[in-house]
User: Fold this.
Amino acid sequence: PALFMENARKGSIVSRANSIGSTSASSVPNTDDEDSDYHQEPYKESYKDRRRRAHTQAEQKRRDAIKKGYEDLQAIVPTCEQQDFSIGSQKLSRAIVLQKTIDYIQFLHKEKKKQEEEVSTLRKDVMALKIMKVNYEQIVKAHQDNPNEGKDQISDEVKFNVFQGIMDSLFQSFNASISVTSFQELSACVFSWIEEHCKPQTLRDIVIGVLHQLKSQLY
Assistant:
């Protein structure tokens, strides 16, 4: 009986120990599973946040770049700085900035074309002056080499005919271009005629034409 009682007591102790251990184990959380869930869920949220933040930053950079582009256009295009009374003191819209920029670019293209034409005209004038310079240098050189050559061979009448031929040719264009309605209009026409018909190349052509006509009197 004593042995039975001892074994029963030991069995009770073991049973209570197992019960306590089971209860304790059931009360302790599953750290492995929870750690896995704990690390996995924040990682997904963080990845989404990073993507959202990157997208927001990229969109903000794009908007900032567009805004700076319009601000640069307003600073570069002179007409954007001028006050537009039709819209008062309101800020220029992007559509107006673009339209003013287009108008200004078209204006620059026209000015460029006009300047190119002026440069071409000036180059022709320079070429005519160079030709006249060469001719005068040859005349001066010939006179210096033979100062007495040809002296008294050309009469005053021939010289007058040369002068008259040049003046007659100029007067024809002068008479056709000048208006005498008023002094103001006369003055304007004179300056216009000088610019159009008294260019070096034009005068040179007139002189050469007169000399060809009077060649029989000169030689």
Observations:
- Helices lie at 2-27, 31-76, 78-81, 94-145, 156-177, 183-197, 200-213, 215-218.
